TrEMBL record:
Source species: Thalassotalea fonticola
Keyword annotations of the record: Signal
Name of the molecule in the record: Ig domain-containing protein
Domain of life: Bacteria
Pfam families: He_PIG (PF05345)
Record InterPro entries: Cadg, Cadherin-like_sf, Ig-like_fold
Length: 320
């Protein structure tokens, strides 16, 4: 602005000098024409913001000047009367516009100015709203859960999560951006339209989700397993066989014995089988089954027991 005023004053002064000094002769002037000069303020334009830049023009002879423009971006308008370039670039106009030619003419000579304008992205125009994604299936009552949403912002903005319309036991850790909570048996049911919002400070994105709170019984039961090693028994001796039983869920297990000889018994408390066969029981007892149950599923092992009569000790033979 300062520069513009200075130029205008100078132009007036020269016009005055010409008017005062050179008007007394009508003889054809041999003086050569001075070409006009021009300059523009160097300014950067911003998307969605009004751009305006003054053009300074000057002609040493005080000739009437006209401005014209070529190769300008569509949004850039020349106001020749007010010696001003103006316009409002839109989103998509970001970048460098070069080789713009501004021409000033005094009717005889003209001067060209080659310049360029950079259009910067505007704050508002280029914010990418953040995205949020969350995979929540179901929760079992009594168990602590943590859900970490996938949040992303293409601009790298700092993101803030907020939760709305959530059950009271579902909480948010805004520092670390995750959800957590433990539902109680009285919370069983489906909670719909829970809103998770992520904001980058300018735009926000919302995700609606639901959580089903299931009773613990709805878990997939792991059936128990059983292993038993039984070889043979000597008649007259007490034996105890302890099966290896296991349940991945930690369920309480109960044993059941079937197709067993009467002398083979089960101790359900201690989960073992025991018994003493007699000499008359000598033989093979086949296909005895021992079953373990976790209350829902069972596992079974079938086995044979051979009862062997003890070999009588050989009689002492005395030699004479
Ligand atoms: Ca001139
Ligand atoms: Ca953003
Ligand atoms: Ca089980």
């Amino acid at each position: 602005m300062k520069k513009q005023i200075k130029i205008t004053i100078t132009a007036l002064l020269l016009q005055c000098l010409v008017a005062c000094g050179g008007d007394n002769s009508s003889e054809p002037s041999q003086q050569t024409n001075n070409a006009p000069i021009l300059s523009v303020e160097f300014t950067e334009a911003v998307v969605s913001e009004t751009f305006s830049s003054a053009i300074s023009i000057f002609d040493a002879d005080g000739d009437a000047l006209t401005l014209s423009i070529e190769n300008q971006p569509q949004w850039l308008i020349l106001d020749g009367e007010n010696q001003r370039l103006s316009g409002t670039p839109q989103a998509g106009d970001e970048g460098l516009f070069s080789d713009i030619i501004l021409t000033v003419s005094d009717g005889t000579d003209s001067t060209e100015l080659l310049f360029e304008i950079t259009v910067l992205p505007g704050e508002m125009a280029t914010n990418q709203p953040p995205t949020v994604d969350l995979v929540v299936t179901s929760m079992l009552v009594g168990q602590y859960y943590q859900f970490t949403p996938q949040i992303y912002d293409a601009d790298g903005d700092k993101l803030t999560l907020t939760l709305a319309n959530a059950p009271s036991w579902l909480l948010i850790d805004s520092e670390q951006n995750f959800l957590y909570g433990t539902a109680q048996p009285s919370d069983e049911g489906i909670y719909k339209d829970i809103r998770l919002m992520v904001s980058d400070g300018t735009d926000s994105t919302e995700l609606l989700f639901e959580i089903a709170v299931l009773p613990i019984e709805n878990t997939t039961n792991q059936p128990p397993t059983i292993e038993l090693v039984v070889t043979s028994m000597l008649a007259g001796q007490y034996y105890q066989f302890i099966p290896q039983i296991y349940d991945a869920d930690g369920d309480k297990l109960t044993l059941n014995l079937a197709n067993a000889p009467s002398w083979l018994l089960i101790d359900s408390e201690q989960s073992l089988i025991y018994g003493t066969a007699q000499d008359i029981d000598e033989g093979i007892f086949e296909n005895i089954s021992l079953t373990v149950s976790d209350g829902e599923n069972t596992a079974q092992v079938n086995f044979d027991i051979e009862v062997i009569a003890p070999v009588p000790l050989p009689a002492m033979i005395s030699c004479e």
